[in-house]
Design brief:
Length: 469
């Protein structure tokens, strides 16, 4: 709307549409009428509305003649050349949203608890549609971890991620890539937040094991890459732990055997790796040792000697070491919260292994329920008993105490605790036998009640995923 100059007369003369001589301080008319003279000599502008056509020759006359074919062609050309708004960069938006989630420093909601490679994910976006979609689903669903409010956008992103993953798994070029492996892990996490049982695979471990075996056999991934090694180590531990109860899981030993094809390598900040320095020196959390324990539980009776050796050897040393790291005042005082939370998870894993080995020995090794040459579980200072039943009670008590202490890190940093609580619950249920005396039964039932309470507490962290369980 262009502006055009108008009269500089005073307001009184302009209002009456009289010519103003613009004398100062009063114009002649205002002086004669004895009225205030305001605005004399001021420049004013009048703005007129005007519509500009792209081409004046296209303007129709008042006779409203229909446009000719030439006019239509010119109008189409003009409309085609009008610049449109540039589309949003989806990859950039995904990276921005994920980085925003990573910037949460509260250990209770710190995504890096799932693995040190999370900080590298924004750089990997744009290479694999399954990884992009899974990162998007994780970022969109992240607010539900704190609010427990589930929106249609979360489930839409989750469903799209599942679709992209299925497509990637069906493509030979992407099925065994480290990005697709990482996408599986992210979707498993997302399912734990908002999904329901059966959304993905009947067994995550079986599917991941198949992918790991295929990736190792394909020989098209450089497992010396830091990101690839960290993803592989994390998934290997998840699968190995699940293999204790799911014997359909079969992993190729080449995955952790020394050599160029081994994908179990030390990582920058190992969470569960084959680096002893990265796991507080806990021997049982080395991937080769976990693999050995997994092979033992497939045939407990045939491997009872190996189980006994592990139970009275590295397991007890690891229990004592982790107990010290978590109870020593000087060590705890100087330990960052995120490191303390990870140590609790490591201790819980060792307790789980101890409960499993204790049960195997109590069932299949009754002729040798004590070992006079080995220290007892938990060692003397830790309050461990001398026989398997007392040791089982000690291990269950430690799980209960650990779960109570770790509750301050709920939900994410303590998300592994339900697995340890379930192991303690299973042990308490299986310890029941007809010859149980009243004192033993009372102690077992009191522990079972507390374990059930803790299980309810932790399941409340992810109500959507645990509904109906």
């Amino acid at each position: 709307m262009p502006g055009v100059p108008t009269s500089r007369g005073c307001d009184a003369c302009r209002q009456q549409k009289k010519k103003c001589d613009q004398l100062r301080p009063l114009c002649s008319r205002c002086a004669r009428l004895h009225i205030p003279c305001i605005g004399s000599g001021q420049r004013r502008y009048k703005f007129l509305g005007r519509t500009t056509a792209p081409d004046q020759r296209l303007a129709f006359s008042s006779s409203r003649q229909p446009p000719t074919s030439k006019d239509v062609q010119k109008m189409q050309l003009l409309l085609t050349n009008i610049p449109t708004a540039s589309p949003s960069n989806i990859t950039f938006l995904d990276a921005t949203r994920f980085i925003s989630a990573l910037q949460v420093t509260d250990v209770r909601f710190d995504l890096r608890i799932y693995g040190p490679f999370f900080v590298e994910l924004p750089r990997r976006l744009g290479r694999n549609s399954a990884l992009d979609a899974s990162v998007r689903a994780l970022s969109v669903s992240f607010p539900a971890v704190q609010t427990h409010r589930y929106t249609s956008d979360m489930y839409k992103a989750y469903g799209e991620a599942l679709g992209c993953l299925r497509a990637a798994l069906g493509d030979a070029a992407t099925a065994g890539s480290v990005e697709t492996l990482c996408a599986v892990y992210l979707i498993v996490i997302c399912q734990g937040w908002i999904g329901r049982g059966g959304d993905f695979f009947p067994s995550h471990g079986e599917a991941i094991a198949h992918m790991l075996n295929a990736a190792a056999a394909a020989k098209n991934t450089d497992w010396r890459d830091q990101f690839a090694a960290e993803v592989a180590n994390t998934l290997l531990v998840i699968v190995l732990l699940e293999s204790f109860s799911n014997h359909r899981i079969n992993l190729n030993p080449i995955l952790w055997a020394p050599g160029s094809q081994s994908i179990a390598r030390p990582s920058r900040e190992p969470y569960f790796t084959n680096s002893s320095t990265g796991t507080d020196g806990v021997e049982c959390l080395r991937i080769p040792v976990l693999a050995s324990i997994s092979s033992y539980v497939r045939d407990v009776r045939g491997n009872i000697a190996g189980i006994r050796s592990t139970y009275y050897g590295p397991l007890q040393r690891d229990l004592a070491r982790m107990k010290f790291l978590l109870s020593d005042p000087a060590t705890c005082r100087d330990t960052p919260r995120h490191v303390h939370a990870r140590r609790q998870t490591r201790y819980g894993t060792v307790l789980l292994l101890g409960l499993m080995a204790n049960w195997a020995l109590s069932v299949y090794d009754r002729d040798d329920t004590t070992n006079t040459t080995a220290t007892t579980v938990g060692d003397v200072d830790a309050g461990g008993g001398a026989d398997l039943e007392n040791e089982a009670n000690y291990l269950v008590d430690e799980v209960i105490h650990l779960a109570e202490e770790a509750s301050v890190y709920r939900p994410l940093a303590a998300s592994a605790m339900p697995a340890f609580i379930m192991a303690a619950r299973t042990m308490l249920i299986m310890k029941h036998h007809p010859g149980e005396d009243d004192e033993a039964r009372e102690g077992r039932m009191s522990r079972l009640v507390r374990v059930e309470e803790l299980l309810v507490l932790y399941r409340g962290d992810f109500p959507a995923a645990t509904a109906g369980k």
